[in-house]
Amino acid sequence: MAFKVHVGPPQIAIHEGQTVLVSMPDGQITWPSEKGLYFLDTRMVSNWAIYANGEPWELLNGGPINYHAARIFLTNKSILTEDGLIAPRTIGLTISRSITGGLHEDLDITNNSMKPVRFQLEVAPRCDFADIFEVKSGHIVRRGQITTEWSQRRQRLRTAYSNRDFHRSVTITVSRATSKAASANGRLSFEVALQPREAWHACLLYLLEDGEQRFHAPHDCVGEGRRSRYSLTTTEWLKTVVKIETSNEEFYRLFRQALEDMAALRLPIRGTGHTIFLPAAGLPWFVAPFGRDSLIVSLQNVLVYPEFARGALEILGSLQAKDDDPYRDAEPGKILHELRYGELAHFKLIPHTPYYGTADATPLYLITLHAAWRATGDKALLERHLPTAEGCLAWIDKYGDRDGDGFQEYQTRSSAGYENMGWKDSGDAVMYPDGSLVKGPKALCELQGYVYNAWVRMAEAFDALGKPDRAKDLRAKAAALFERFNEAFWDEELGFYVYALDGNKNKVLTVASNAGHCLWCGIVPRARAKRVVDRLMASDMWTGWGIRTLSADHRAFNPYNYQTGSVWPHDNAIIAMGFKYYGFGAEAARVAHDVSVAASHFLLNQLPELYTAAERTESNFPVQYIGANVPQAWAAGSVFMLTQALLGFQPDAPRNKLYVDPALPYWLPDLTVRDLRIGKHRLDIRFWTEGDATAFEVIKGDPKLVERCDIASKAAQLLPILQ
User: Fold this and answer.
1) How far apart are CA 126 and CA 143, in angstroms?
2) Is it the case that residue 239 has pLDDT exceeding 70?
3) Which residue from 88, 164, 238, 304 has the least number of CB within 10 angstroms?
């Protein structure tokens, strides 16, 4: 059995929607720390402790039951009372928590001794109402007023925060308690008197308010008979998605866990008139709408759950920039980077209202629109989002190409903007070979690929919409970009595509994983593809757990850093898909194998956002990146894209076709895909190896829909991006 790696510092994190609780393993919320109960980007509870006559409890065990609930088991230390000493480990305390909007908290105490006991149980919550950005920075500024009031009759403790027209409040109501609560100094106090084997119980219901809406706690105790609304909707959701069966138990668990992660990260967006689920980026810090993340996750899920793409296209389209706003890095037609709801965003102290500091979300919107149409066959989807698509195309021409040289560049115009606006958006992500930072406008290699890909895809979409002139124009622009890119970004001495062009149009001769995205986009000539694949699989880029973000030979390489040497599952999945498109199925399978083996070492077979680039040895296991989000949407979604690469799935629902090019590796000798949707059709397909070949059989649905077709040799039929 694989050694299991725990990601991050010891903690318990549960959530539902935009309510997130992060505590210590014993259920406490320590201060100062990043722990807390968060709601709409505000930390509602910043400290939570529980005592017996002033003594803390001792942890036995604790953890999440599922994504929205947790249970912690504690016992007492020695407790001095007026009746005498209560011996240690004779009293049990169980804390059970569940989130569905608000938080339900159960406190259950049992007297396991042979004597009566009597003591004061104190629950000490504290609320700082800090903005999530300030919590992460460690610099918290109190701008408003906090008030607390207690109602003995209603057994209700309300703490409220007001700063002009910004309001947040948390109301804790004691319910179904064995004994009444009293309150002083913001604490809740209960007298607990128990005979031997007797039990005591109280529910604490946390009502969360943002000044407009009230998010009530579930009334049922955790695990009490009826299943929660969240649990029921998750179960129903899991019935609608693609499932697999395989004799490889580790891969099955990985796929199943990825589905569970995606279920957990569904983010309901309010104010749209109907419920739309957008994939949240990750827990605990990125439970918010993100442009790039939502679109890449939608692409990963386009065959597993195409409704993510529908939701992302609708929500992001509704928030497409209309005006030129330098502070928010917004220009007409641009797709957002991030939308936040906290105090800093409310008063525009940060530009996330929304913030548009991303160079790739706009072409990715077009790619997602086309991919969703190809998967669903829904022409109305193209028609509905055509105005947004036209805005994206106009932005690419007018603002994406900042200096008219035919390439996409980015540079922040905001005093609070991001230096880097590709998926590697940390401040030190883009460096010259000597380790110095690239400043000024940057033209990343993958940005050119995304735009090329978007133009060719949208050309096919315009053909379907009866607009041949628009299609012809986009194909001509794509062909010209293909030539320009391969002349300007290829370096023969390096034998690879350069990371970027700097503001002076000099090549940034750094070897990074970004060039692998160019394979996925189809902007690499076939004659050059093998050199790109070989370079990505060379020892300085390959860890044995996946492809590094940055070459180990680079002066600034750090295997433990965020984006200058680590391994990102979503990055590897995109690269593996690119390998498959160019006929390098064995290399794609190797990426899938080593990333899935890495996943087998993480708790629950759950892929984190990233892990370090420590070299793999026979006795080794992947090394965690401490700050990684788990669960994380595009890490989970990478499992689906890797599966798609192994099976060579390419949907063409407008023509009622699913093309397959399966090549199962030795470690995955059989795979059955169930409930695969192609347009209005559903399919079950079984794949298995026969010697070096992979056979398949449609076991449910119309076999005529499925056609074997070699992606590499018949790309013009399957992939407009590779024509």
Assistant:
1) 17
2) yes
3) 164
